[in-house]
Specification:
There is one protein chain. This protein is α+β, with helices and mostly antiparallel strands and 266 residues long. 35% of the residues lie in helices and 18% in strands. It is built from ten helices and eleven strands. Strands 1, 2, 5, 6, 7, 8, 9, 10 and 11 form a nine-stranded mixed β-sheet that branches. It has a two-stranded antiparallel ribbon with strand order 3-4. A hairpin with a 2-residue loop joins strand 3 and strand 4. Helix 4 crosses helix 5. The longest helix is centred in the middle third of the chain and has 16 residues. The chain is globular and about 60 Å long.
């Protein structure tokens, strides 16, 4: 039994190292999967791993820099403080999410990779306007992930930034509001979830029954609910989330789960 993120899960399955989870016939359909998390563990509609949690980045801001939550590009450009995203990210997740929110697509009708020039131009024009207005610092290119952009936010260097979901408790004592999904062109929000799943190592004798039983026990809501809450991860199922205390953190997790997209494969 092995825990893999969505990228490694797809690669391991493609190389024949792990068996498709659906082949074990033990997927509890009654768990009510959070779609964005479950879809990250699917390949051509089949569940190749058993999702149990997900990581995600949220958008947080200082109220002094924004009179209201900056849900749209226009809201972000109207703020008085700079915002920061990891422009040095090799996967360009923030830009990719903005591209998709602007109507861009990743594949054409024949399934081939494609790029919508108009959607991408709209995103770059948003960045250009932010740079011209002094709202997007050049230092954004030095950040490769949200673990450093959150430090710039908590130290007061910027007015808003991407922050890892598992570091949100650090913001409670500061005058920083967590919006959740990132600003998007139309204000509906966008973000990605990076799901973690249990996978069964493929062996000639077939899946190990004890490994399957252990994975199901670890992923079941009664265990995964309190466990994801304690580690500040997003749960994979609605019943697991329902076991969280009814507070702002749970409400935020519900919003993120409903808004975020599964992280696209490489």
């Amino acid at each position: 039994l092995i825990a893999l993120d969505a990228t490694d899960l797809a690669a391991a399955h493609a190389s024949g190292m792990v068996a498709a989870w659906d082949e074990t016939g033990t997927t509890p359909e009654s768990w009510s999967w959070i779609i964005s998390v479950a879809d990250a563990a699917r390949l051509n509609g089949a569940l190749i791993g058993l999702p149990f949690a997900a990581k995600a980045d949220a958008f947080a801001y200082r109220a002094l820099a924004y009179p209201a939550a900056p849900h749209s590009w226009a809201d972000t450009l109207a703020g008085s403080g700079s915002f920061l995203f990891p422009a040095g990210d090799p996967s360009s997740e923030f830009t990719l999410a903005q591209y998709l929110s602007a109507g861009g697509t990743l594949r054409d009708s024949d399934g081939h990779s494609t790029l919508d020039a108009q959607a991408l131009q709209a995103v770059l024009e948003f960045y250009s306007a932010a740079r011209s207005g002094g709202l997007l610092p050049l230092s954004s290119r030095q950040h490769e992930d949200s673990h450093t952009t959150v430090d710039a936010l908590t130290s007061g260097q910027v007015g808003a930034a991407l922050v890892p979901y598992d570091r949100l408790p650090e913001l409670d004592a500061l005058e920083i509001d967590v919006m959740g999904p990132w600003p998007s062109r139309d204000g509906s929000g966008t973000c990605f979830v990076d799901a973690w799943s249990w996978a069964i190592v493929d062996r000639p004798a077939g899946p190990d029954p004890l490994a399957v039983e252990l994975a199901v026990w670890l992923a079941q809501p009664e265990f995964a609910g309190p466990w994801t809450r304690a580690l500040n991860l997003l749960p994979a199922t609605s019943p697991a989330l329902a076991l969280w205390p009814d507070d702002e953190r749970r409400s935020l997790a519900e919003t993120m789960g409903a808004t975020c997209l599964p992280l696209p494969s490489p």
